[in-house]
Amino acid sequence: MIGRKMKNILANLLSVFFMLIVVSCASTKNEHGDMLKTPDLAIPHLTERLNLTLQQERDIHPIIEGNHAMLKSLRSRYDEGKITSRKALNRQLKSIKENTTLRLSKVLTDEQMDEYQKMWDELYQKRAEHKKRVKAEAEEAHDDH
Questions:
Q1: Residue span of the structural domain in which 65 resides
Q2: CA angle 111–117–122, rounded 5-degree value
Q3: What is the pLDDT of residue 106?
């Protein structure tokens, strides 16, 4: 049986990796949730943030769909108990990220790839801030008891 903590870890990791394609500085939290539902909702955000041409939009669509499918499959395998270690999960998530980045690098310009990396950096920063805030809130709640 997979523990609740591990499921939360997976959910966070999957969100982080899929959000790489949808995160935007100006987006609100609700927009992220909507964008995560389907790759079709991610494309307009990438188009705006990376200033994609119409051809690039067409070219990245199957990449984004493939990324989404791989993450969905990974989530299913995890939910079925076929992946039980965090190390194995992280290896597979890293592989998906690397695959997606490699495929995008064949479509995007160097400047767009730089912006794409910036999106990642911003996402990691936001995630770190969120983790810090959650930890502080948990410690505060613990201290109140």
A1: 4-144
A2: 125
A3: 97
